[in-house]
Amino acid sequence: MLEGPAGKLEALLNAGDPAATHAALICHPHPLFGGTMHNKVVYNAMKALASFGFPTLRFNFRGTGRSEGKHNEGKGEVEDVRAALDFLANEFHLPIIFTGFSFGAATGMRAACPDQHVVALISLGTPVVADGRTYTYKFLSECTQPKLFISGSQDQYSPAKELREVVAHAPEPKKLVFIEGAEHFFMGKLDLMQNAIQEWVREVVL
User: Fold this and answer.
1) Domains along the sequence of the chain with CATH
2) Rounded to a whole number, what is the largest CA-CA distance in the chain?
3) Are 139 and 110 in contact (CB under 8 A)?
4) What is the DSSP secondary-structure string of 104-137?
5) 25 has which bridge partners?
6) Cβ-based neighbours of 199, under 8 Å, separated by 6 or more
């Protein structure tokens, strides 16, 4: 259990290799639509990053699973992410790779971009239009760390045209990858998502 701003946060930590060069945080999709740290996309992203020996942390946002507090429409959840980043920084004293899926990306990048410990960001299934909500990412204009965006070519919440516009406004270095034929949850394509993460980490981070 991590100490969060609205109470304790249920978490899972893969300790990684004692000689690890980086630590990683992975944030889950929207809790009101069934998102938890056990989500398959989150789990497979964790596996991709843990393959490098990185300590990897997953946690449940407030009000999810055994985490205390109540859902706060993304506002308080940014503070949850900050608490998780602080835990990793204090526990391992390593540069951090942030990864978020869907709601976890939209929310978590707000905390990760200005964090001095975060050296790279990975956004999976970046939501642009979802359930009547339009996500804006104006804050990305000041996000100078290397950024990887991975989405399915058939992602109903992240249409290619709109996602390209979001990425276009983010500064370099950045990379946008579409997994051909994949929808929002990368069903049947999780191995391709993993491969894209690992390839980018080798090329850009290590």
Assistant:
1) 2-205 (3.40.50.1820)
2) 45
3) yes
4) HHHHHHHHHTT-TTEEEEEEES--SEETTEE---
5) 57, 98
6) none
Place of tokens 């804050």: 139
Name the token pair of 25. Answer: 């945080």
Q: Apex CA 190: angle with CA 205 and CA 131, to 5°?
A: 100
Position of tokens 């990425």?
A: 167
Token pair in block for residue 89: 């920084």
Residue 130 sits at the vertex; the CA angle it makes with 128 and 135, to the nearest 5 degrees, is 40
DSSP assignment of 1-26, as one string? -EEETTEEE-EEEE---TT-S-EEEE
Alpha-helix residue ranges (DSSP H) falling in 51-96: 75-92
CA atoms within 13 A on the CB side of 70: 0
Query: pLDDT by residue for the chain (206 residues), tens digit each?
Result: 999 999 999 999 999 999 999 999 999 999 999 999 999 999 999 999 999 999 999 999 999 999 999 999 889 999 999 999 999 999 999 999 999 999 999 999 999 999 999 999 999 999 998 776 667 899 999 999 999 999 999 999 999 999 999 999 999 999 999 999 999 999 999 999 999 999 999 999 99
| Residue 168 near residue 175, CB atoms below 8 Å | no
The answer to whether 178 and 151 have CB atoms below 8 angstroms apart is yes
* Amino acid (1-letter code) at residue 98: F
| Nearest residue to 89 via CA among 69, 68, 119, 67 | 119
3-class state of residue 93 by DSSP:
coil
